[in-house]
Amino acid sequence: MSDLVLGIETSCDETAAAIVGEGSKLVSSVVSSQVDIHAEFGGVVPELAGRAHVQLIVPVVEKALGDAGLDTTKPSIGSIACTIGPGLVGSLLVGVSAAKAMAYAWGVPFIGVNHLEAHLYASFLADPELEFPMMVLLVSGGHTMLIHAKSHGDYVLVGQTLDDAAGEAFDKVARFIGLGYPGGPAIDKAAQLGDASLVRFPRPMIDSEGFEFSFSGLKTSVVAWARKHPDASAEDISACFQEAVVDVLVTKAIRAAREAGVSNLCIGGGVAANSALRAETERRCAEEGLRAFIPARAFCTDNAAMVAAAGWWRMQNDGPSVLSTGAIPNLRFP
Ligand code: KG4
Ligand code: ZN
Questions:
Q1: 243 pocket-lining for ligand 1 (C-beta < 6 Å)
Q2: Is 269 left (phi over 0), alpha (psi -120 to 50) or beta?
Q3: Around Cβ 291, how many Cβ atoms within 10 Å?
Q4: Label partner for 83 (CA 20 to 30 A): which of 142, 245, 288, 332?
Q5: pLDDT, tens digit, for every residue of 1-13?
Q6: Number of C-alpha atoms within 13 angstroms, CB side, residue 173?
Q7: Rounded to the nearest 5°, which phi and psi values hold at 302?
Q8: C-alpha to C-alpha distance for 325 and 232, rounded to whole angstroms
Q9: Is the CB–ligand 1 distance for residue 86 below 6 Å?
Q10: How crowded is residue 48: how many other Cβ atoms within 10 Å of its Cβ?
Q11: Pocket flag, ligand 1, residue 185 (CB < 6 Å)
């Protein structure tokens, strides 16, 4: 049987398909972003996202198969992996329905994948030599978690955010200072021109005993400070805010790795595309004698290659999912 997995991802506002061999060898990856559709509303509009996925899913899958040199009517693939949750129900349903229909028509197994577990597997695309155990800092638009990954499928939640996710804080601060949507990449770009020493924003819970995070207060501090300093530039505010978030994330991730006694630290999720987070993770890991695994930016934000990688390992460990598997918008992880 072919070791190629067709991955499909439609949990939020990216329609994506990819072909990956043996869980880590990237063959093709196509991501169609809906940013233009949602930008005028300042955030993802679920109804519009679902409709756009319906229009995009077939061409995106065809392009991923075509780029991999595979036949688009009956490709020689071994299985189809698709995100089944968490995410927007109307978006998830499009990918899950398409994936199951293709699996049935082509007579290959269907594998339902947890989107958060998929973010973790992006590190295997970065380096197939990556070995368990590892500490994973998972930072996306909806989640901020530290996961102690002991082996395939064996995860312990070490800590998570008590309120806003890191990506959510980026998006909210960006909106407030007029950088628009999506906020994370806009802050990243603006911060490169800013002075991070202008003001020291609080580092919430950086020294607290456990591994919980909280970003809602930081966002409020930034907004309050910006109101008091109307002349401050968006670039400087971005740099100072970003530095505070990155400091908290990296400090706690390194401490978590130390306490768990693991020497591999991976980052994943959309916020892991952030330049400062990437640089600081690299720098502090080198200082501490830890190995940093940082996926290419394109595999930090939502994509289907990570879904194919996670699906491959799920298949090896648990076998395929039944075709009655549906979308699970609030699917938990771990
Ligand atoms: O993983 P992801 O693509 O989707 C979810 O699963 O949520 O993450 C999206 C989040 C958004 O909040 C976005 O603003 C943030 O990741 N993000 C970034 C950057 N690129 C995306 N945040 C900071 N810097 C970036 N370069
Ligand atoms: Zn994601």
A1: no
A2: left
A3: 17
A4: 245
A5: 799 999 999 999 9
A6: 38
A7: -55, 135
A8: 51
A9: no
A10: 15
A11: yes
Q: Which two tokens stand for residue 283?
A: 């720098």
Q: Is 167 in the pocket of ligand 1 (CB under 6 A)?
A: yes
DSSP codes, 197-252: TS-----TTTT-SSS-B--HHHHHHHHHHHHH-TTS-HHHHHHHHHHHHHHHHHHH
**Burial group, residue 240, by CB count within 10 angstroms (0-12, 13-18, 19+):** buried
User: Could you give the domains of the chain?
Assistant: 4-119+300-318 (3.30.420.40), 132-295 (3.30.420.40)
Q: Which atom of ligand 1 is nearest to the CA of 275?
A: 26
The reported pTM is 0.97
Rounded CA-CA distance 134/119 in Å is: 14
Strand partners, 148: 135, 156
Contacts of 253 (CB under 8 A, 6+ apart): 135, 137, 146, 265, 267, 281
211-239 tens-digit pLDDT: 999 999 999 999 999 999 999 999 999 99
In the reported structure, the alpha carbon of residue 197 is separated from the centroid of ligand 2 by a whole-number distance in angstroms of 31
